[in-house]
Specification:
Blueprint: E1 3-12, H1 19-27, E2 31-38, H2 45-52, E3 55-58, H3 64-77, E4 82-87, E5 90-92, H4 97-107, E6 111-118, H5 129-142, E7 146-148, E8 155-158, H6 159-162, H7 177-187, E9 191-201, H8 207-227, H9 231-252, H10 258-278
Parallel strand pairs: 1-2, 1-4, 2-3, 6-9
Antiparallel strand pairs: 4-8, 5-9, 6-8, 7-9
Helix pairs in contact: 8-9, 8-10, 9-10
Length: 287
């Protein structure tokens, strides 16, 4: 059955290697309306999207937060019940994803958003060390089903609740915009949770790409600490960046992935220091 209740938004920037398979996985779940919000890709992302007839918008030089806000506004203005954010490197695995998410929303009136469960694909024997490290990290983040203060992609939001909250507010332009968005939702008394509906992610397959991803997270950490007004939350996040990620997580995973967790944590610290110190503007089109 075609799902007409959910608007699916994919935010892209130079995703030619991922976008087609991402769209196919969404189509397999029978969502009726999908749109691309692109930050000005200079590869073949848009030409590939044109070939298969998916609606797209190009907002050259825009931040990820600006495009997220545009997607949310589109869902609001076109009377959708839900918006589903999916990254281009993610794949939906359950053909009943939309139906299952809607059933969970109907069970809890205060539920504003749900995050899907990122799992390792079946062909894990073909994965290298860095890929397996990312999937190990995913298990730490999403496999603990239940209430959350912050959720990440792929995620559904219920429009009737989140229409009164905003992305792209003030100085929040980059990777921490969803953190602040979720914070405002939680502070208003609404609920967020992780659910057992499976998806997967085409994770980074090299040391270089692992460092790049962790560095990006560090930028988001710094943006969060700079703009967070609650001193306790600032302290908790600084502990997360400087202690939990580079020290505690590796010690909790004293196995073959201890190196992955340590390297990921240190690169995240480096991204934090870079952004906190220099406050650059040129990371904004990152998808």
């Amino acid at each position: 059955m075609i799902n007409n209740n959910t608007f699916v938004a994919i935010l892209t920037f130079n995703e030619q290697s991922n976008i087609i398979d991402c769209i196919r996985s969404i189509n397999n779940c029978n969502f009726n309306e999908i749109a691309i919000f692109d930050g000005g890709s200079i590869d073949n992302t848009i030409s590939l999207v044109k070939e298969i007839g998916i609606r797209f918008e190009i907002h050259e030089g825009s931040s990820i937060s600006e495009r997220r806000a545009l997607a949310l506004n589109y869902a609001i203005n076109n009377n959708f019940e839900y918006v589903l954010f999916v990254d281009a490197d993610q794949r939906l695995l359950d053909i009943n994803t939309g139906k299952k998410a809607e059933e969970i929303f109907k069970q809890e009136k205060l539920l504003a958003g749900v995050q899907l469960n990122l799992i390792i694909p079946n062909d894990q024997n073909n994965f290298n060390y860095w890929q397996l490290g990312f999937y190990s990290r995913h298990r730490l983040i999403t496999s603990n089903f239940g209430l959350k203060k912050v959720i990440g992609t792929p995620c559904f939001f219920k429009i009737s609740i989140v229409k009164d909250f905003k992305y792209n507010v003030g100085n929040i332009l980059g990777p921490s915009d969803d953190t602040f968005f979720c914070k405002e939702i939680s502070n208003a008394g609404f609920l967020l949770k992780s659910i057992n509906v499976n998806c997967t992610e085409i994770v980074r397959a090299s040391l270089k790409s692992t460092l790049k991803k962790a560095y990006w997270y560090g930028i988001g950490d710094a943006e969060y600490v700079i703009n967070e007004t609650n001193s306790k939350n600032k302290r908790n996040h600084l502990f997360h960046v400087f202690v939990r990620n580079p020290i505690i997580n590796p010690l909790k995973n004293i196995n073959k992935f201890i190196g992955f967790y340590f390297i990921f944590g240190i690169a995240r610290v480096a991204g934090f220091i870079y952004y906190f110190t220099l406050r650059p503007k040129k990371y904004l089109t990152k998808s």
